[in-house]
Amino acid sequence: MKRETKSIALFDDGSRASNAFRLHFQGSPGFSVTRVYSREELEHRMRKTGFDIIISPADSPVHAGAGDPECPRIWLFWSAHAPQRNSPGPRKLSFRFEIETPETSLSYHSSPDESLGEQFDSLKRLLIRIDAYHREFSRFQADTEILQSIVEDTVTGILYLLRNTIQWTNREAQRILGMSEGELAGRAFSSLFADDRAYREGLTLLSRNRESGGWGKSRCSLVRKSGEPVECTLRMRRLNPMNPQKGHLVVIEDDHDRRYLEWAVSTYQEKMAKNEMKYLDILQRMDQVIIRTDPDGVITFWNNRAETTFGYTAEEVSGKTIISVTTDNGSRSAKDMTVLLHDPGSERENALHILENRRKNAEHLWAAWSALTCRDLSGTLAGIVWIGQDISGGDPSIPPVPGTGHWKSRILQGTDVVEEVFDLIFHAAIQLGRGGREAKKIGTSFVIGDAATVMVHSRQSSINAFEGKDRSQRMIQDRGVIENIKNLALLDGAFVIDGSGFIHASSRHLLADITDIEIPEGFGTRHASVAAMTAITRSIGIVVSESGGTVTVFREGRLEKQIEP
Questions:
Q1: Is residue 273 part of a domain?
Q2: How far apart, in whole angstroms, are the C-alpha atoms of residue 299 and residue 303?
Q3: What is the CATH number of the domain that holds 243?
Q4: At what angle do helices 116-153 and 16-26 cross, to 10 degrees?
Q5: Is residue 263 part of a domain?
């Protein structure tokens, strides 16, 4: 499942701070950044594509556009602060952020004790929460308008009472009583009866005759503005059954038109229930494993694909944790899932994780997992949605062939490639295949292992971005190096990496002879050259297809694995 990408227009004033914003958000999955340099360019781009978020210095000329209904939901204006040059210690930037939306605005200062990365991570989480809030608010507004329309236009009269005083009426109540909204608002409910005796008798019957939902029912006679009596049926109940201070709803049913308020009120609830069932049905039918857990990992939803993949029914996993059901106790995958479960940071939100899982029958499989955090409007963690894809090639409904679920071990055999190194590069390739970089499709390739021989059979097609760097800056086990690789994947040529994770080169042109290489139709020169290189060396090749993001693994000149991220 591909995550929605939020588009950012960054007003670049050439400052250090603007550059820091660009680098951080460009490197954050889920965001795409477009730089603009003038108000005119911003307006032009907005007319063509639009943006979700605009980030700009507080004194920029775009500030006047804030609040325009045609503009994005979120405007972020910043001003940078740095200590005086005579202050002790390094000069660290901190920021004052002003966030404006169509409904509200807020401002806060970031802490100068945090690094720029930490300040921006906090800002990113805040923007995501604000965006989610406004999406939820928009849905709430739409639903409220539907309900208001239903209540306003129903052919049943409705009054809202607070301490026996009429606060609100719908149009039908005004028609039945022959009074305008202004004439009814602030009027005592008892004044609608012929006299106090009729009022007390009506309340007594409403109290005695209880229907479902807490509605009291009474036949009585009310008095129109003209003095004409109107025979009607009254229904009354507390707005909040647990709190009488919230007032009462009163339904007036003209005996000439007996329709029930329960229909009007319940329509909204029924609509919501139907929508929930529809969404659950969609999740049940999806071709991916969908599992929802509470914050402690206890399973609360288990779709049909999860049943066929792992062999457990929804009833069997109810009340159990996802870790105990899908992994071996004490295994590396169990530990990795435990980290994902309890890590509130970006490791869970922004990555695809390749884990070795276990079926009910004890068979193993390789699965690619995304873990999405669900929070309520207050920001409290409500649960986690786990989205998985079986990438081992096995179908649990069919008896497995020898080696099913162990394809990685087969590929690594006979090479000098450490499993961790393969996992990191495979992981990065899948991320590139799923979302590209800066919303651009990317095609790239990696040759892992037997690096000295690979370098002999290749040449530099452009500058080697890693040449001259310290060894620590060339080891893929470093997260920053992996992110750098993803950025450099935009360039032509292959990455050459040895089995320990040391990056020998980027932008490498492979010279292996492709004449005798047989690959499936639709694959181009990039796939053929990587396959050919694995045929003449003890290396593993991984190719990301630019056209569709397909990740292909080659070994000994053969296609070993193909994955649609």
A1: no
A2: 11
A3: 3.30.450.20
A4: 70
A5: no
Picking from 155, 188, 191, the residue whose alpha carbon sits closest to that of residue 171 is 155
On whether both 48 and 83 belong to a single domain, the answer is yes
Comparing 475 with 69, which gets the higher pLDDT?
A: 475
166, burial (CB in 10 Å: exposed 0-12, middle 13-18, buried 19+): buried
The pTM of this model reads 0.38
Domain range for residue 162? 155-258
The dihedral through the CA atoms of 176, 182, 185, 186 has a sign that is negative
Q: Are residues 431 and 351 in the same domain?
A: no
Predicted pLDDT of residue 405: 37
At 484, which amino acid appears? N
Do 181 and 291 have their domain in common? no
Rounded CA separation 539/451 (Å): 8
Write the pLDDT tens digit of every residue in 268-327: 456 655 665 666 666 676 778 888 898 888 998 898 889 999 999 989 998 899 999 999
- Enter the tokens of residue 10: 């960054």
Rounded Cα gap, residues 565 and 556, in angstroms:
24
- Nearest-5° Cα angle at 182, 178 to 184: 55
Distance of CA 365 to the CA centre of its chain: 26
Query: What tokens were used for 96?
Result: 């004052």
> In sequence order, what E strands does 170-228 have?
216-223
Report the domain count for the chain: 4
The answer as to whether 1 is a domain residue is no
**Helices 419-435 + 479-488 axis angle, to 10:** 40
Residues 166 and 199 in one domain: yes
pLDDT digits (tens, 9 = 90+) for 397-427: 333 333 323 567 788 889 999 988 888 888 7
**H or E segment and range at residue 390:** strand 381-390
Return the closest-CA partner of residue 53 out of 77, 73, 38: 73
Query: Pairing state of beta strands 381-390 and 289-293?
Result: antiparallel
Query: 139 and 10, same structural domain?
Result: yes
